[in-house]
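Example 3.
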Amino acid sequence: MTIKYHNVYLHSVGTVVGPYEHSGPLARRFDRFYDDLYMNELTFERAEVHLMRESIQITLDKLNKKKKDVNLFIAGDLQNQIASSCYTARELSCPFIGIFSACATNVEGIILAANMLENKQVNNALVSVSSHNMVSERQFRNPTEYGAPKPESATFTSTGGASCFLANEKSEIKITSGTIGRVIDMDQTDTNNMGACMAAAAGDTIYHHLVDLKKKVSDYDLIVTGDLGKYGKDILIEYMQKEYRIDLSQNYNDCGIILYDTNVQKEIQAGGSGPVCSALVMYGDIIPKMQRKELKKVLYVATGALFNPTTVFQKENVLSIAHAISLEVVE
Amino acid sequence: MIYFYSFLFCGTVCLIGQIILDNTKLTPGHITSMFVVLGSFLDVFNIYDKIVQTVGGGAMVPITSFGHLLSHGAMIKANDLGLVGLAMGMFDFTASGITSAIFFAFVFSLFFKPRN
């Protein structure tokens, strides 16, 4: 399902990152960074709230707006019961929608906000996401104390907070459409190979987006997927060619690979992941490139692996979903 | 010579673990459990005791030793007390290890924060 938007604009973005993101190739593109995973807080969980809160502050500061100017706050993260978003929302005291679709959360939030902006139900909306490497490791990957090596195909949860401010007043970047994805089951059970699970969901969403809008891949200057990682990226290119006869090899990249240099940063393994991973690359790298008119039309496909630790132990499949939005530079 | 055997035995156990880890989808949790069961099984005919006599510490450090001690303790108590002894003796030899693991975990958690 693809929805077209006529008056939804992106006004400002804010990014705060942790040490691994700051030592990656995009180091200088982020608004603020921390060298320590605690971000001057007592626990990793509080550190994540800190990241999201700061990214909101930066986003609003760039527009000289106050917290009370925000009409609607939509946020999501990877913590159990999206705790990080809820604790951030406590300080904003504006209407709040908490959302979850794993690493596809950011685009889900933007689509929700865009619909309400398009219908003039709100005049502006703030969409935030966060994730924290150690929170995820503790919760559903391998805690440090487990002391276990990870396979090559495993991805690395990014640490950071990212926010964007959307409004129906004109700005230089317009959100032109949003495609809501379906839940896809590829019969995968390996949580250390989420790229493979998510590639099919990304493929499905890209295909339906192109068909719904009668567009071609070449209509976009860049198509980016959320966090398939280096193996997932290759799988998607092959899958698109085989399943839909669509050639992605020319103008396609993956945020999980852009955020880190996997050749130097060995601990990253297959690439970055987490809701904030694609948001950091979009807001830190791709949106500025659009502002400089280096890129004009971008399709942003965020992919999420849907599972929880209990369902995985009960041998349920790891499901996946992908949502997409298209962005355009306003001439 | 015992140093060499010790090195060889412990190294082989680790090698098997690494090979399993690299070539299957089993997690470290699975592998540790398998080694415990294996060590426990080797208590039959006191095989593991003989290994310990030959290679020394190399056989007492890896997790297989934990399995061996579990069944060894259980069997000794079972000789004295029958079926009830099986359950009573299970943790006889491993109790000190488990207690110190809990104790030191507690002590260190007081002084240190988790790191990446």
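The interface with chain B takes residues 37-38, 44, 133-134, 137-138, 143-149, 190 of chain A (CB under 8 Å). The two ends of chain A are 27 Å apart (CA to CA).
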